[in-house]
Amino acid sequence: MGVMRMGYVHAKVTDLAEADQHYSQVMGLYETAREDGTIYYKGWDEFDHHSVVIEEGGVGVVKVGFKVRTLEDLAQYETRLQQFGATVERMSAGENLKVGDGIRFIAPNGHVFELYHEMEQVGVEVGTHCPDSFPMDLRGIGAPNLDHGLFVGDDVEGVEKLFIEALDFYPSERMLATGDDGAPLIATWLSCGNKSHDIAFLKGPDGKLHHFAFYLKDWNHVTAAADILVHHDTPMDLPPTRHGITRGETTYFFDPSGNRNETFAGGYLMYPDRPCVEWTMDQLGKGLDYYRREVTPTFLTVYS
Amino acid sequence: MGVMRMGYVHAKVTDLAEADQHYSQVMGLYETAREDGTIYYKGWDEFDHHSVVIEEGGVGVVKVGFKVRTLEDLAQYETRLQQFGATVERMSAGENLKVGDGIRFIAPNGHVFELYHEMEQVGVEVGTHCPDSFPMDLRGIGAPNLDHGLFVGDDVEGVEKLFIEALDFYPSERMLATGDDGAPLIATWLSCGNKSHDIAFLKGPDGKLHHFAFYLKDWNHVTAAADILVHHDTPMDLPPTRHGITRGETTYFFDPSGNRNETFAGGYLMYPDRPCVEWTMDQLGKGLDYYRREVTPTFLTVYS
Amino acid sequence: MGVMRMGYVHAKVTDLAEADQHYSQVMGLYETAREDGTIYYKGWDEFDHHSVVIEEGGVGVVKVGFKVRTLEDLAQYETRLQQFGATVERMSAGENLKVGDGIRFIAPNGHVFELYHEMEQVGVEVGTHCPDSFPMDLRGIGAPNLDHGLFVGDDVEGVEKLFIEALDFYPSERMLATGDDGAPLIATWLSCGNKSHDIAFLKGPDGKLHHFAFYLKDWNHVTAAADILVHHDTPMDLPPTRHGITRGETTYFFDPSGNRNETFAGGYLMYPDRPCVEWTMDQLGKGLDYYRREVTPTFLTVYS
Amino acid sequence: MGVMRMGYVHAKVTDLAEADQHYSQVMGLYETAREDGTIYYKGWDEFDHHSVVIEEGGVGVVKVGFKVRTLEDLAQYETRLQQFGATVERMSAGENLKVGDGIRFIAPNGHVFELYHEMEQVGVEVGTHCPDSFPMDLRGIGAPNLDHGLFVGDDVEGVEKLFIEALDFYPSERMLATGDDGAPLIATWLSCGNKSHDIAFLKGPDGKLHHFAFYLKDWNHVTAAADILVHHDTPMDLPPTRHGITRGETTYFFDPSGNRNETFAGGYLMYPDRPCVEWTMDQLGKGLDYYRREVTPTFLTVYS
After folding, report:
1. Which of B236, B242, B291 is nearest residue D291 as measured by Cβ atoms?
2. pLDDT tens-digit profile of D13-59?
3. CB-CB: which of D220, D230, D242 is closest to B290?
4. At CA C71, angle to CA C70 and CA C75, rounded to 5?
5. Is the dihedral angle over the CA atoms D169, D172, D177, D178 positive or is it negative?
């Protein structure tokens, strides 16, 4: 039980300046470092150095980092991943800016994941002494935290098995093709804590990004964020609604390079003993867009 | 890292019928069992048999149960509690209705806690197959979950130490008497997962209950719940506001016997590596009632 | 300035029992009278006997009543309507259940409107002495008030002119086909008070109903109402969003006969001196669905 | 029926710079003019030149302007005010910056009111052509509109009578000392349109200001505004709650000179035929603070 959270997403963008405008002015992330062709950001309620990294040259996701609770967890997960059959390599402190030693593996769906225990903390604007509840004068949406990601690849069963067996995640919701026995698994939502999901996987071409999501406080913040997206002419993919799956309140939209983002609030309290919810593809409309009950055509076709 | 959540609060009430009216009609809990002088309830989004038990004969809290992830956790915590110096006893399946084997100890602040791994699941009304997001026709407030409790006792340092060292909790916020070195600890808020707190302790007479809280979805549900409390003439202690401490959106009120309840929403995402927030008593007003910045006189004087 | 509000909508339904289920259990209106083939309803915050009348036998709107402030207003508007060139007839007390004397005219878009000054008051559940802010235990959506209607007909210029010149309404927003001089008027939104609109007209086949709307308190009530619609499998036409036109927060849906209803909140404070907002058809997407910026196909094609 | 709204409040402040900081940075009003010792502001959704005027030199209210619909209304109200027995004087265009001809009278409670028909329009940032629903980057609370005022004076019956008989207002709610026949009128809330009130009067020392209020969109904006007040250490008088009277969602606070302001949302749809709600002083707690049901001590004692 050592994985705490998805600590960072490292994505590719076609134009760094445009992407910076989006992540800093629209999403309202704080820039914490900038190197040749790469920018690092954090949300206002994150203490660690960064949670989003963008790198010029293409689209999609380069890799995703999960922070573990102890150094021992790194060794433990290395062993278990190897036992699972994954190819694991050690990564050294400094390979990722401000990030300590860790391990790296490629999941069965083609995605690169890293586990690490240390990242330099830079703190938060409100501090930790009798703090205000949030900073004034946030820019744009003012996203407080990175929340989760949905990653595309062919072997959903395989990657789900890996995250459950080698990394202690537990599934909160699963989508099967049909209600028949042995129907293929189309998607799975997995938690490593009390959020309704920390990561999710969808069947499709290997190594693709469906979206990564920012946590917002509640439904009113989700709709207020949508106003800001509209103001900036951000291409909206799924306007504010609630997912039937996870009950999350949501908006999908695209960064200027075509990477899908989400603002996400709500969901239920997840625990390892909470029974997994099962969906079938004929109910995907309800699962995706609880009010409209239709599947946005892009949902199953547009990835980066 | 085996404690999942505060699974139940077992409280005493002076009049069972009046209390039942409150917990079933105002709070909207589901009655799941009734024995001589005792009633068991669950919230609509809880799968386990019960989360609140009321027993006729007095006021205050009888005991509090925490559910652990595995059977092995029980043995492990038994050992660690003994090493810590606590008196621990085994409890057998059936000592608590529908609850399996477990252990019981008395904390340094005089409270009785139980750890258990199994409780019969009764499920939820919406089911787990392509479910609706919530049941229609909830009664009253329709609280989905028990959330946390604040327990009073003299030895706050001791009980905090026990929960951290023997049970793997981590402090999210702490209130010291002053900013001076060695100032006494007045209160502490502890998490065992991603909620801003799962339990909290306050300095005062041993074995007393400050409040137990029900989780609500967001601020709008907190204020809608307050309308229902007003309609039922439920004595309100702290009308809808936000805590500076934990950022939680809150209302305090009393059940007919004088046990304080809370409806609670919000708070931030807690992790073991999130720095602990520190408060001093001169800022208790801001910590308790972020807008009014005054301490409700009852906060430090009325317990059950 | 004598027209106070749209006091009633009288609509046709194909099946009275199904429609009753919708208006009483889903919309949560109070039935106040029932005659052979006709049911009368009011919202919980309306004092007058009824605001919605449904009559078995078809679909669409039979007529719409506007309540005026004084008896003298009736005579004044009769004269002005005649001067405008409309055919006006007197209607007698009792022609409409519980409604006093009035006048009736057919508007240039083929709709029948009635003006009246008196309707029997039946009061509200919370009373008028130190009242609670709303009744507990409302059914379904619990709509407090009828709000406005959008009516279809070919001569939008004509009906707008009539409502402005003969009835003292003022336009809050207008939609032109293009930005060119002399472009045809496609739709107009008119106010007789401080709401952003009390009635609206859309170009299309004469005498058709686009929708009538119920007032809700705010955005959270609009989305909570959508959950109730989903629960009842009410066909949804435009899921919860904001209109760019009037800024109103909205959901469109259909009663079982295919009459479109709306739940509506928000909008700005309207006054006779507030400049009229102008739209062109190329921006209808933004005007209708501020977030999605697309025109629901049914919007310009499905009427009853 | 010619009075449209409370168009401006002209108040005194002890320190112009401090007051400017409050009204421009905290309330987020737009400065539209500045003369020696006087500043003019408007809200972002107001088209007229100003709605708030502050003038250095003391505290309290200098005068209040109501905008009427037509020039004829000015003459009509002049006559009716004289018939009522009020002393009325003509005021000339330019006596108030950007304001046309009008009339001025002193009400029985010692307050100076002005009626006018013309004020230069300066428009709004979003414009009137396919507008966005609101401007981005509002400062602080970003209040859209002035809403209403509550004015103190001894002769509440007299000023109520004047506003009803000479100015066509109608009472929405009234507070009597007791439920006995002939009990004195303590306060009255009056509407000239569809808002639950446009002006209110409270018994007390003549010519005093209780508060003037800014309209906000809904409860979430009221609580978000309170966060901004807290951030600026604005003295809060009544933290976010709902009034039982008018059902309005509210926060009371003080500008740096001690003039009480309010942020206000909600309330019901008012019409001339809506029965007046009656309160008695023993229920003032419920009427003022629906959740807490206590009278803030300052409510009946602190005026400016």
Report:
1. B236
2. 999 999 999 999 999 999 999 999 999 999 999 999 999 999 999 99
3. D230
4. 115
5. positive
Q: Closest to D278 (Cβ–Cβ): which among C129, C273, C287? A: C129
A228 vs D134: CB contact, 8 Å cut-off?
A: no
Tell me if B125 is assigned to some domain.
Answer: no
Taking the Cβ of residue A4 and every Cβ of chain B, the question of whether any pair is shorter than 8 Å is answered with yes
List D10, D50, D148, D210, catalytic entry: D148
Q: CA-to-CA distance for A163 and A108, rounded, in angstroms?
A: 10
Domain end marker among A116, A137, A168:
A116
D211 is catalytic: yes
Rounded Cα–Cα distance for residues D22 and C166 (Å) = 46
Share of chain A above pLDDT 90, in %: 99
Return phi, psi of residue D76, to 5°.
-60, -45
Choosing from D30, D41, D243, D303, the catalytic residue is: D243
Instruction: Kindly give the parts of chain C with pLDDT less than 70.
Output: 1
**Are residues D7 and D88 part of one domain?**
yes
Contact yes or no for D121/C274 (Cβ under 8 A): no
Euclidean distance between CA atoms D24 and B297, whole angstroms: 36
Position A1 confidence tier, pLDDT thresholds 50, 70, 90:
low
- Say if residue D153 is in the same domain as residue D98: no
- The whole domain housing A162 covers 145-288
Question: Can D243 be counted among the known catalytic residues?
Answer: yes
Q: Residue C22: which of C300, C251, C256 has the closest Cα?
A: C256
How far does the CA of residue A146 sit from the closest CA of chain D (Å)? 23
Q: One of D49, D197, D210, D221 is an active-site residue; which one?
A: D197
Q: Are residue A109 and residue A154 in the same domain, yes or no?
A: no
Residue B139 CA to residue B127 CA, distance in Å, equals: 19
| Torsion-angle region of D194 (φ positive above 0: left; ψ -120 to 50: alpha; else: beta) | alpha
Same domain, D149 and D269: yes
Give the distance from residue D63's alpha carbon to the nearest chain B alpha carbon, in angstroms. Answer: 31
CATH number for the domain including D29?
3.10.180.10
How many domains is chain A partitioned into structurally? Answer: 2
Q: How far is CA A293 from CA B113, B133, C300, in A?
A: 46, 13, 21
Residues A161 and A268 occupy one common structural domain = yes
Chain A residues inside the 8 Å CB shell of B123? 275
Q: In terms of residues, how long is chain A?
A: 304
Q: What is the pLDDT of residues D58-108, one digit of tens each?
A: 999 999 999 999 999 999 999 999 999 999 999 999 999 999 999 999 999
Same domain, yes or no, for B152 and B284? yes
The overall average pLDDT reported for chain A is 97
* Residue B220 touches chain C, beta carbons under 8 Å: yes
ipTM of predicted complex: 0.96
Cβ of residue A220 closer than 8 Å to a chain D Cβ:
yes
What are the tens digits of pLDDT across the range A265-300?
999 999 999 999 999 999 999 999 999 999 999 999
Exposure on the CB side of residue D48, measured as CA atoms within 13 A = 26
| Model pLDDT, residue A137 | 87
What is the pTM (predicted TM-score) of this model?
0.96
Same domain, A40 and A155: no
**Distance in angstroms (rounded) separating the CA atoms of residues C198 and C191:** 5
Residues across chain C: 304
B264 vs A287: CA distance, rounded Å: 27
C298 close contact with D: CB closer than 8 A? no
A156 shares a domain with A269: yes
Question: Is C252 in the active site?
Answer: yes
Which alpha helices (H) appear in chain B, and where do they start and end? 16-20, 71-84, 156-165, 219-231, 284-288
Q: Is residue D303 part of a domain?
A: no
A82, A291, C53, C93, C136 from C21: Cα distances, Å: 61, 21, 14, 30, 20
Q: Give the nearest partner residue to D227 out of A133, A220, A228, using CB atoms.
A: A133
- For the stretch A107-134, pLDDT in tens is 999 999 999 999 999 999 999 999 999 9
